[in-house]
Amino acid sequence: MEIDDFPSHIIEEIKNTCES
Questions:
Q1: Are 14 and 7 spatial neighbours (Cβ–Cβ below 8 Å)?
Q2: Kindly report the CA angle at 19 between 13 and 20, in degrees rounded to 5?
Q3: How confident is the model over 1-20, as a mean pLDDT?
């Protein structure tokens, strides 16, 4: 899963949202 268009902090935020 390589997304250069997505900044790292956005990915982290999505991960946190998925875990909730």
A1: no
A2: 95
A3: 80
Q: Is the pTM of this model over 0.85?
A: no
Virtual torsion, Cα 7, 1, 13, 10, nearest 10 deg: 10
What letter would DSSP give residue 16? Answer: H
Residues contacting residue 2 through CB under 8 Å, at least 6 positions apart = none
Which tokens go with 7?
């900044």
Locate 18 and state its tokens: 């998925």
Query: Would you say 11 and 3 are in contact if contact means Cβ atoms under 8 Å apart?
Result: yes
